[in-house]
Automatic annotation (TrEMBL), chain A:
<comment type="function">
    <text>Molecular chaperone; assists the folding of proteins upon ATP hydrolysis. Known to play a role, in vitro, in the folding of actin and tubulin.</text>
</comment>
<dbReference type="InterPro" id="IPR002194">
    <property type="entry name" value="Chaperonin_TCP-1_CS"/>
</dbReference>
<dbReference type="InterPro" id="IPR012716">
    <property type="entry name" value="Chap_CCT_beta"/>
</dbReference>
<dbReference type="InterPro" id="IPR027410">
    <property type="entry name" value="TCP-1-like_intermed_sf"/>
</dbReference>
<comment type="similarity">
    <text>Belongs to the TCP-1 chaperonin family.</text>
</comment>
<dbReference type="GO" id="GO:0051082">
    <property type="term" value="F:unfolded protein binding"/>
</dbReference>
<protein>
    <recommendedName>
        <fullName>T-complex protein 1 subunit beta</fullName>
    </recommendedName>
</protein>
<dbReference type="GO" id="GO:0016887">
    <property type="term" value="F:ATP hydrolysis activity"/>
</dbReference>
<keyword id="KW-0963">Cytoplasm</keyword>
Automatic annotation (TrEMBL), chain B:
<comment type="function">
    <text>Molecular chaperone; assists the folding of proteins upon ATP hydrolysis. Known to play a role, in vitro, in the folding of actin and tubulin.</text>
</comment>
<dbReference type="GO" id="GO:0005524">
    <property type="term" value="F:ATP binding"/>
</dbReference>
<keyword id="KW-0206">Cytoskeleton</keyword>
<dbReference type="InterPro" id="IPR002423">
    <property type="entry name" value="Cpn60/GroEL/TCP-1"/>
</dbReference>
<dbReference type="InterPro" id="IPR017998">
    <property type="entry name" value="Chaperone_TCP-1"/>
</dbReference>
<dbReference type="GO" id="GO:0051082">
    <property type="term" value="F:unfolded protein binding"/>
</dbReference>
<dbReference type="InterPro" id="IPR012718">
    <property type="entry name" value="Chap_CCT_epsi"/>
</dbReference>
<dbReference type="GO" id="GO:0005832">
    <property type="term" value="C:chaperonin-containing T-complex"/>
</dbReference>
<keyword id="KW-0597">Phosphoprotein</keyword>
Amino acid sequence: MPVERLLKDDATEEKGERARMASFVGAMAIADLVKTTLGPKGMDKILQSTGRGRNITVTNDGATILKSLHIDNPAAKVLVDISKVQDDEVGDGTTSVVVLAGELLREAEKLVSMKIHPMTIIAGYRMAVECARDALLRKAMDNKQDSEKFRSDLMNIAMTTLSSKILSQDKEYFARLAVDAVLRLKGSTNLEAIQILKKPGGSLGDSFLDEGFILDKKIGIGQPKRIENANILVANTAMDTDKVKIYGARVRVDSMSKVAEIEAAEKQKMREKVQKIIAHGINCFINRQLIYNFPEELFADAGILAIEHADFEGIERLALVTGGEIASTFDNPESVKLGHCKLIEEIMIGEDKLIKFSGVEMGQACTIVLRGASAHVLDEAERSLHDALCVLTQTVADSRVLLGGGWPEMLMAKEVDELARKTPGKRSHAIDAFSRALQAIPTIIADNAGLDSAELVSQLRAEHHKEGSNAGIDVITGGVGDMQKLGISESFKVKQAVLLSATEAAEMILRVDEIITCAPRRREDRM
Amino acid sequence: MALAFDEYGRPFIILKEQERKSRLRGLDAQKANIAAGRAVARILRTSLGPKGMDKMLQSPDGDVIITNDGATILEQMDVDNQIAKLMVELSRSQDYEIGDGTTGVVVMAGSLLEQAEKLLERGIHPLRVAEGYEVASRIAFDHLEKISQKFEFGPDNIEPLVQTCMTTLSSKIVNRCKRALAEIAVKAVLAVADLERKDVNLDLIKVEGKVGGKLEDTELIYGIVVDKDMSHPQMPKRIEDANIAILTCPFEPPKPKTKHKVDIDTVEKFQTLREQERKYFDDMVQKCKDVGATLVICQWGFDDEANHLLMHRNLPAVRWVGGVELELIAIATGGRIVPRFQELSPEKLGRAGIVREKSFGTTKDRMLYIEQCANSRAVTIFIRGGNKMMIEETKRSLHDALCVARNLIRNNSIVYGGGSAEISCSVAVEAAADRHPGVEQYAIRSFAEALDAIPLALAENSGLPPIDTLTAVKAQQIKENNPFCGIDCNDVGTNDMKEQNVFETLIGKQQQILLATQVVKIILKIDDVISPSEY
């Protein structure tokens, strides 16, 4: 007897082959979508938001593209999620992870149609991924001891990362910027100390690294524009009207004169507060909240530079770089730690006035000022630089390095191939498939560059059969080249994360044999 | 339709708005119900066993869940049919009671219903079927007791526990590192277990997850991990030998519950009020300082001024810590939760050997680790994984494993898995059936057949020929009189589950049979379904 309505209306259920097909198709569609952005000759995408203003974003960054997509297919959502995690965790390789997962599923689909059970495929994939990781581990190079070489490794990695982005024109310049900035951090992974300022105008080549800290604020009127040996108090306190915080307090008066008195008392209170602040012996005061005219005037009188409304991040960063603490009460001037810097001055970038703090206590901080023709260019430049910075900090933490240009994939593919030959049983098909999926990445890089991928990849494979080969795809000349000589490197940590999370995601999707979609919650159509 | 007529032939209306209700009666009702129950069981059938597949569920908000856990699948499924809802409840109660075997219980109920349908077609009254099932379930229950084995474990010998947890985990996606996870689960349970009273409070085990890293990085922390950071960015990130004040009052000006107004009408009042406010903040911090606290954990927020004062007086603080977490911290550190500043006293402080903040990845994610607590009875399992769905599924799998370990501590009897217990019960029930007089004999025999459904599903999911495998195993069990023969799902080469180390808890299995029988009895007893029709 047929069952009517087991699930709620609009809820759908897909089973067995159909469910598997739906998730394969969804995952592959996502992978194909971002596939063309892979590699140095990858193309960009324009994303138009559906919100007001229809803002557009031009980007090459896999995570950014996938984040902005509205996806309905559940398997595709898994891929979007791994890309997001990759972004949070290592910062780069967001496209590769999706493409690799997509290729793994594409191969799996062929195996499933050959009547191989998904569980067998998973078992094979698991063996293969172990083998591939071992191969990577064995081939990873570590130049941590040799600081000269390590720096050149970092440069290479930064250039490789940037070469696929909009910054590729000036990649050497930006790579140096990024490496300098990261090395200043001295091993910490705190990217907060690196500030990226975007100012439209000029060209990308005009971007520069500033050793100090730049705050995008103006100096109050009538206050000094330049202070040497500044003592800075970083504060988070109300400097407009200092409200009484006790609950239920309100002012109730019965005559005009009383109003005036209370107003005077309020003024007095503010004056006292300002006096207390001044008593700290400072010549620069930076507040997170607004500073009204009255206290501002008082500060100006005392010859103190007062900066209002620095946002929360700005304040935290300032506190971090100048070594001061964020203060909210001012009763014990002797024990509050003040921040110091050698010079505060107003500088001009383009048409904007900014405040620059140089000679700060913590040498770790720096600011990268990006210049570019339009906001879109700047946004994309920031994303690219962010990727590079992330990869570099990760590399500083885990200094193992691999070559790039499809070299790690071919290396893994070779090892996995050998494993397949040794493994009896149906699993060897899956292991074989894994190696094919790995080889798909250099194929896509070559395809995107308009090269003859079949020819190149087969050449590569032959090269890799020799022990200790450094061969990879040289996109510029369109042939097989020595990656070591060309200086194309990638971080081990990124590659490992790509390999592991792509396999994990593929495994998850493969295990599914039924998709149940609940009825979507009704929403008011706001559009 | 239910129409009754009076002596003049006019119809009575019995049900309110009865023309708008649909109604099923008698055998039709039972058949419809059975079909619905079986449909639910059919969905879960493929998830059974180590080679079972997962389900992908999309919630009304578009979130994706991938899971293998029967209870979760059914809960998220948006079921509309009344009988199907009963099945959902069934799996949920197994989840509450035992925590594991939620898939098995539904598959079992489904196959009992299937057998019942055949009996109904032969004209056996549903109640007789229900009674027969009841008798059979008792036989199976007792038989399980008979074939069960006790095994000894202690804090030094956790191997048997680990093995059992591994059996549970092997059907989940995390089976790649089931060994490590099983060890974590067992250690966590043993850390919080009260071996004297044979009781485990699973609330003391906190399961926290964070995306990124690999599954292998999952760790057990003897302490608490809170997804919070210090309230002020410049507070120390590492505190040793912390004395922790656990507060549920905000560092903010007081807010009396009664409505009140403070009127300011003179300058003096304005100034005194100001003075008081300042003093109030000072007092709060001073009180914490006075009792010797070196860390403040608070459920509520801080005023900016208070925050700075805390920082200034070198008193690190954490704000907006949830109530449950606060309780766990209190248990772990041996402190008391203090609702008012006045009640702070040195003996109410909790103690921890080390408190540190750890940051992850490239974003500003930070977590607070509280370790080496005075009372190490609260532990945290910290899961890492490639994506959100993976973490969620790992959490569910670990929950199952924790429950299994707990059940074993309560009752250390086990039966062997891989369908061997079901096959053995089936043989026992079948034999008992022949000795039972009356119509129930048929029902008992059907029960035996229904028990075969689990090994059948296991074999089918593992890609083995189901009937061949089952009959072979059954024959072997009878021939060798060995109740430990089961389905060799992982292709190990032997089907003696004792050698394969595949265990399940006795109470889990017994509960499955009892619960499944009960639900089937309820469903069989229904002979009239009245539902509001669609409008």
